[in-house]
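Input record (one chain):
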Amino acid sequence: LASENVRWAEAVGSFRRQEHTLCGDVLLITAFVSYLGYFTRRYRHELMEGQWKPFLSQLKVPIPITEGLDPLSMLTDDADIAAWQNEGLPADRMSTENATVLTGTQRWPLMVDPQLQGSKWIRNKYGDGLQIVRIGQRGYLDVIEMALSAGDTVLIENLEEAVDPVLGPLIGRETIKKGRYIKIGDKECEYNAGFRLILHTKLANPHYQPEMQAQCTLINFTVTRDGLEDQLLAAVVSMERPDLEELKSNLTKQQNDFKITLKNLEDNLLSRLSAASGNFLGDTALVENLETTKRTAAEIEEKVKEAKVTELKINEAREHYRPAAARASLLYFIMNDLNKIHPMYQFSLKAFSVVFQMAVQRAAPDETLKQRVANLMDSITFSIFQYTTRGLFECDKLTFTAQVAFQVLLMNREIIPQELDFLLRFPAQPGVTSPVDFLSNQSWGGIK
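The corresponding structure, as predicted from the sequence alone:
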């Protein structure tokens, strides 16, 4: 048992350290699930790292927390994340956080989902067992009532800012008669504890009543530039190097299988040790089980080390394709801003993804990776430019072209924002006198 003793002693030490920080960790994780769902990734990080953690450490009696605590590590694991992505959840960090909050919250989740990525994932996740309704459609209350008593999951799509008051008791979980019924309209409907309600809106910046926000957990599925870049990186790597994505998927599955195998062996061993009486060395089955556990634990430890090295290599190989994903993400958000010129200019992320995939397939092949990525960037830029300009008025095409040129130059750091500002606005310093004849006072003020 000497080798097992070392491993168990390490585990006990780890548990004791966790016991010291458990309260602080749980407090942070609970706040993460309750309050951070509606914020963008930047503000989530700022609140966690810049506000909450310093606050806990600066209290008169500091609350200890685990150093480098990642909320996802306590709320989910790689197997769940892989399953969500197989169900259609985008592969970026923010989407994973959103899914973690949605599955972990006790309040009804309300998805802010203009690009319908969250809705697509929910449909795939729950499949045929999901009841989908829209407020105002014929018989939608009947569907909710039946699901409420049967314990089904209901997705209410396309909520506006004003919600039908008849749903107030349901959203607020206002149960009556010892928690067994909820009143919907004039009916008292039986409440099944397995019932789950998911709310969804396509509004990009909704303003709900405070009581609505208190009763629900708002989750922001709006696509951000960094988030879309990660999604497109996964897409381009799966097309260019499907072997990498398959290897990454296999590694995740393998790691989880290792954890399950080791846990089962340890549970079995501990059960036999606790049940053994007298000299347990005479228990052949117990000794064999112990040897199997030792051997398996050593093999798993070795394979885990190999897997970590392999994972680093995979991530390094994926990063070579990031410039192509970053270019595509930039172009999508330039497209998305065109509605500021004319409200008719609306482009869906789904259509953009189709154009992106076709552009990757059409890119000129090359044996060198660097040139292949450059070809991908050119093909993506041309295809998206061509797709977008087809839907623009002639007078707006030059504006779009200039914006693409400026933003690409900024991204490549070939110009700086101050130079672009000088070109577009010519901010001049007032009240200066030109020292030379060939420049007016205003021109000299701009140079200054």
